[in-house]
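Cross-check.
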Amino acid sequence: MGIKIREKKLNDGRKSIYLDIYHNGKRHYEFLKLYLVKATTAIDRESNKETRQLAQNIKAKRQIELQSADYQFTPAFKKKTSFITFAQKVIDSKSSQPAYLNVLNKITEFGGDNLTFEHLTEHWCQEFYKFLNKNLANNTAYDYCIKASHFCNQALREKIIVKNNFEFIQKNKRVDTNRNFLTFEELQILFKTPCSHVELKKAFLFSALTGLRWSDLNALKWGDIKHTDKLGYFISHQQIKTKSYETLSISDQAINILGKKGRSEQKVLKINNITNYNNMQLRNCMLKAGIDKHITFHSARHTFATLQLTYGTDIKTVSKLLGHKDVQVTQIYAKIIDSKKVEAVNKIPKL
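Predicted model, tokenized:
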């Protein structure tokens, strides 16, 4: 730990005083908005002496704050770190940037461009959640709050803050929503229906037969697909969303849908990354196939899960195939299958 007083010469002849702070292997600069003038008179020299003394006092205060930080107190200068700038850096390191950018836009809309970590009190976080809940659907507001919490967790790891106030606010529970999927018959019809967006249709069918997320599928390269006599085709990869490593078995049918194999470094599917556009084109494919359901690309993953359970795969295996960390997340698909069973038995005509 070390703090040094530095001086920077300005274009107008004055010198700006700032602190060079080195702590826990990281360097911070704090400009004190204190200035030294060119001393031509006794008054100037006395003024500069008082300014330097004030800088020494601030330095001493910062040293106490840094020592306190080692005992779980946040230094005042760190609290003044721009949350917006910090969050943008976190987003730049993520693959799912659009989702986090949407959250940051909402944070800026509510808190302004000058938001610092000092503003992120428990009360502020609670009011931000109320703002989200007022303007967005319940589950979306919940998910946005979780993503905002991710920013603060990163700040915790970097010791900018010592407490993530998003973890202490009251939120409504996520509610189960209608997860649209295709039946086997509908998937078969889609397979046989010509579609102008061949790669998009191919991607949807491949996801429906493997359970791969859009982000993982979009990043998939031919070199990621392996084959052995014992295991058949499989992908051993790190999931982009969860960062966990999974080995996913792939059926011969799914491989055949991909067509001719490319070079190892080539992407398997040539699809753009504009979600709304892809979902709109997918909707056109569905209508052409006579399928009048609200189907998005993520519905392919729902289709995979429901088909697996329908044809007898146990829920724990399905959970592993989907890359879920908790089997409870997969349970929603079991509920869908149960409701379909009830619907099926009630189709029997009255005697």
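Residues 182 and 303 are 5 Å apart (CA to CA). The mean pLDDT is 84. Passed to J.P. for a second look.
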